């Protein structure tokens, strides 16, 4: 008989993927909430029949109707979560997994972070404490372009110049599938003690770096920022509700970012046996490369610029190398892919070894090397022409090379 798993918030961004993954792994999933077979709303006393026989409850549901001024005793997220956890223990459920957040702090700027923190405290002192496991989840990305991930993906490609707050704040991305896998591990692994786990990248990155990853993975070029104060950002949030064709930004999300701080996740990831993927690699496949064709097109352009007629082996070697080094996609324009000689206008000086285009050209040179004709040498005229061209293009390259750095 398939183990029974109860999920609340299964219609949300994380919940929908979690429910699908649980079914793929053979669980009998009960979606406690809006589904006809198990109607429930946070704050309700769940039916005992819905809980009996379940191996675990994973609680993702959250009511956004609670305002900043709501007293704790009237906060339905706090009382509703504790009610559900106590009912689960009374029904014999062995594990109750509460989906919290890395914004969970007593002093969090946003209501969401403070509420998650208070729920954690109440669960720790409730009769349900022995079956409770807390999962503090980092910045979730991947899958459908909804929730915070969808908003950031849209913002990152709106313009190469983006007004933004919290650029130096550290964030810890984690893919949607990795979150779902971590939650299932907490729900099913009896060896894990009741404690708090952090599901997030072990090495935090700046929010500015994260936005640049989102932009590059969608095939766009360099992203520049205009730092703005928090008050201006909150005002802009209000304006997004009035301006058409601009993504609406919830002030809660801005406040969450403004107060972001990393949490240690290494031990949690090891206990749950989670090996998190590189976000740039994953997003390049999900957002920018529905097939391998865009990557191959850029690889072909780089090889042709270096004077090679691309072979299948060269294209494969270079495409794999670019992906492995986090350089795919480079974001070359269709014009550059069609007319690779124009890359001469963007090629950086030889000493700019950290330049993305320079690194890509170096890989292209290595990829084409095995098929080169041995003993083929450039003539004196070709060498003079190359040197002269480099000198003439130097001022223009100094200006244009920024695009693909």
UniProtKB/TrEMBL annotation:
It comes from the Bacteria. Pfam families: Epimerase (PF01370). This is NAD(P)-dependent oxidoreductase. Residues 6-197 form the NAD-dependent epimerase/dehydratase domain. InterPro entries: Epimerase_deHydtase, Lipid_A_modif_metabolic_enz, NAD(P)-bd_dom_sf. Transmembrane segments: none annotated.
